Amino acid sequence: MTSQSEIRVSRFRSDEAGRVTADALQTWDRDGLLVIEDFAFSDQCRQLISAADALVEDFDEEEVAAIFSATSQQHAASQYFETSGDKIRCFFEEGAFDDKGKLAVPKSRSINKIGHALHDLNPVFERFSYQPRLANLVAQLGISEPQWLQSMLIFKQPAIGGEVTWHQDGSFLYTVPQTVIGFWFALEDATLENGCLWVLPGQHKNGLRSRFRRINGRLQTETLPEAPSFDENDGTPLEVSAGTLVVLNGALPHYSEANRSSKSRYAYTLHAISGAADYPEDNWLQRGRDLPLRRLS
Ligand SMILES: O=C(O)CCC(=O)C(=O)O
User: Fold this and answer.
1) What are the distances in angstroms from CA 294 to CA 90, 116, 124, 129, 275?
2) Which atom of ligand 1 is nearest to the CA of 167?
3) How remote is the CA of residue 236 from the centroid of ligand 1, in Å?
């Protein structure tokens, strides 16, 4: 990022039950963004980090590397992503392989993220995701019949952790009306050096720019007719300490830089949608009948 017209982003705390003040809720409405410091306790952050590392340790990198290495396997590679909505799968960093298709970094550093049903399939992530404090907070944010649709552990490993380009979560997790809310938990300190989030406060009010959806059997990005433009040079960095929760309206543009530092930047994200909204069949993320979405409380 070159220009930093930094807007001061207000920071709040929740009470023991996870509730926030009316002032915080006004900020949420105005900015489409709510920063809650110390929401996750340090032992919770440690448990999630250990559980994520254990999943990577158990992951068979050779089997999955084979899916991604050959161009003739393009279909298999997209299937690996497209059918991950109700599974726990590891996704490699772009720079993880050398030109012979061998891992260029240790396996423990090679993973970009794990997705997308950690919260329903792994007991450590499940306990964290369905904790009453979080359900109480979500209940205050104006989303009816909230359900966790997706979860991800984003690693941003030192030197290799990739950029996440500017996007709005509602483009990927589209509902009618727009109801998706992102919950981004810093499990480690997130700084300018290791790839903290950048945001455009207030720009959720302009609506969605695009939709990522299945058209003629293939996932594609479609520009929406009323597409707003947002000026990415106006981005505000959000440096936060471990335990901070950043809540993002599904139409709020956000971004993170590549991590070129020597420190990792683990984050856990959950995305809620309203069970009362329409969830289209051409969205990329579809769950099988064996793992229906659950209400938060
Ligand atoms: O963790 C990051 O760097 C980006 C995460 C993100 O954009 C998301 O969860 O929607």
Assistant:
1) 23, 14, 17, 11, 9
2) 7
3) 15
Can you read off the two tokens belonging to residue 133? 């404090």
Q: How far is the CA of 262 from the centre of ligand 1 (A)?
A: 20
Domain borders along the chain are 11-50+115-274
Q: What is the pLDDT of residues 2-25, one digit of tens each?
A: 444 456 799 999 999 999 999 999
How many whole angstroms from 295 Cα to the centroid of ligand 1?
23
Q: Which residues line the pocket of ligand 1, CB cutoff 6 A?
A: 154, 164, 169, 182, 184, 254, 256, 267, 269
Q: Report how far residue 165's alpha carbon sits from residue 157's, in angstroms, rounded to the nearest whole number.
A: 17
Ligand 1: which residue has its CA nearest to atom 2? 256
Which of the listed CATH numbers 3.40.190.10, 3.90.76.10, 1.10.357.10, 2.60.120.620 matches domain 11-50+115-274?
2.60.120.620
Ligand 1 pocket mutation pick from 116, 119, 152, 264 by most atoms within 8 angstroms of CB: 152
The atom of ligand 1 lying closest to the CA of 152 is 9
Q: By the 8 A CB rule, do 207 and 177 touch?
A: no
What's the pTM value of the predicted model, to 2 decimals?
A: 0.95
| Residue pLDDT, tens place only, 270-292 | 999 999 999 999 999 999 999 99
| Per-residue model confidence as pLDDT tens digits over 173-193 | 999 999 999 999 999 999 999
